[in-house]
DNA sequence: AGCTTCAGTGATAGGGTCTAACGCATGACG
DNA sequence: CGTCATGCGTTAGACCCTATCACTGAAGCT
């Protein structure tokens, strides 16, 4: 049973995170400003500290959400095999590139992700291994290659490094997916 | 012929960039502070604006330097073929991970790299294509795979995503290098 | 009805970027 | 060699930011 206070609190927390996502999409994580969020919600800056202990904690919470949403996206791909999973990953990433970079982008020296996101990461990896198991032997190694190769194409595409290169990122991505379906020579 | 003024100016600019690199290595690009740099050099914050028009311009200059240093690293690898080039890339990246992420990390929405760094990037890519040409047909496609696959492993390693996974990043990297040496099935 | 809890406020400290006006030394030049 | 302009570095200040603190007032609870 939730009290009215708790419901209100959850509501405001959700609104803060929503505005935070908008700001991050617009100007990246370093551009996120608690003051600006508060203003958008019609309150003053310090009020937000009722809901998040610090700016870092808010960002950590967003990272948590990002991991969670990737997990549900991967789960939703279900038993569609490696190719289906790869497709789901790409559409998920393209839906919000800054969300992708929040997880896989430039690390902040000294920052360590909380343990629960690392657990989520492990679960996602397990899903990946399971999907690769039905495509041949050596599921772990296959899943690892899957991850690194797709991340390679995806992160470069999302960062805009293919701009002006007369190249279709989707095709490049698809080619890597195909490369993962055939067995690797030692 | 350089005047004393010019020499002094170049010297101070170099010192600023040196301290900037130290700060970036220690706390990432968002943590770079002109005030802190000025203090380290024994002057006050505004003095730095004699040397760089803005914080962004200083960072842009560092990005330029990063591209330049990667180009010289790649050039130094010379005619050692794809494998040698891959090794040079990895040691260059490991030498300063934040430098790598300055080039290939999270992009800032709205920021566009200056044209000369894009030219440097093209030259580096040309080197890569040349190295791949001696390893078989389809040099461009091969070079592209080379780039995306190595970046995939390297960026995940540098960001610490392999931590606690009981896995040797160097071996993973080497495996990808091997994968690039064999011809790809369509 | 009274009391407690807590959301939101303004004030304040301390940091950042960046502009503007000002002293002052140094190099340039007649 | 003396004069003068160039330009380096300063302080002051505008305007951001995060974060803390004491306080007010309303809402919920007993």
From TrEMBL, chains A, B:
Taxonomic classification: Bacteria, Bacillati, Actinomycetota, Actinomycetes, Kitasatosporales
Keywords: DNA-binding, Transcription, Transcription regulation
Transmembrane segments: none
Domain named HTH tetR-type: residues: 10-70
Protein known as: DNA-binding transcriptional regulator, AcrR family
DNA-binding region: 33-52
UniProt cross-references to PROSITE patterns, sorted A to Z: HTH_TETR_2 (PS50977)
GO molecular function: DNA-binding transcription factor activity; transcription cis-regulatory region binding
Top-level taxon of the source organism: Bacteria
């Amino acid at each position: 049973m939730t009290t009215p206070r708790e419901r209100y609190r959850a509501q405001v927390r959700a609104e803060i995170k929503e505005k935070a996502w908008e700001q991050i999409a617009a100007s990246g994580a370093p551009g996120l400003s608690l003051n600006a969020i508060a203003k958008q919600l019609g309150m003053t800056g310090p009020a937000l500290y009722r809901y998040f202990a610090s700016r870092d904690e808010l960002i950590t919470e967003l990272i948590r959400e990002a991991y969670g949403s990737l997990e549900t996206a991967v789960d939703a791909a279900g038993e569609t095999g490696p190719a289906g999973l790869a497709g789901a990953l790409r559409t998920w990433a393209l839906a919000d590139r800054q969300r992708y970079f929040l997880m896989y982008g430039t690390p902040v020296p000294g920052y360590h992700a909380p343990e629960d996101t690392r657990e989520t990461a492990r679960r996602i990896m397990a899903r990946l291994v399971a999907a690769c198991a039905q495509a041949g032997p050596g599921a772990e190694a296959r899943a690892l290659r899957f991850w690194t190769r797709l991340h390679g194409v995806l992160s470069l595409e999302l960062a805009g490094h293919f701009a002006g290169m007369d190249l279709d990122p989707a095709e490049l991505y698809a080619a890597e997916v195909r490369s993962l379906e055939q067995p690797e020579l030692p």
